[in-house]
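For the sake of clarity, the format in which proteins appear in this thesis is described at this point. The fold follows as a row of integers, each naming the local backbone shape at the matching residue. One such record is shown here in full, so that the layout can be seen directly:
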Amino acid sequence: DHRDLHSFPTRRSSDLDPMVSEKDLNGTWKIAYLDSYENSYEGSYEEIEKEAPRSSLKGTDFNVEDWLGKSVTVSENEVRISEIGYQTAGVESGKIRREDFEQEMDIHDGLSIYDDEILVCNIKCQNGEDIICVPVNENQMIMRIEEGWFMLEKE
């Protein structure tokens, strides 16, 4: 597949659970790898793959290693990312064309999901921040943390 530029496992329609919903966000997750980055990143995806675990991304002060392996816990009223807790005030979710979402969110290299339509969950926090998640299946989701888009795997 000419679109398959990532060496990380890609997710296709056959991998995605059509019944995935916002309730699948709840649980304890481990940050597995950096999936993509916002458009301020000056390098290529291959550099994310090679450089990310060891250094800041080119043109940024974003250190991926600060996040890898950390736990994320999602419950009905809190999201805890490593040591930081966010009180939540609900979730908005909806289906959107993947390419539109990637463009709207200014994602550098696309997410490793090749479905045309994805479910996007926007966890509303009481401090006014939003935590954006894209459930892949009941055991994986992509979450935006700072400027990075990370693949999380259920523990």
In short: DSSP finds two helices and eight strands in the chain. The radius of gyration is 15 Å. Residues 1-16 have pLDDT under 50 and may be disordered. Residues 45-51 form the longest helix (7 residues).
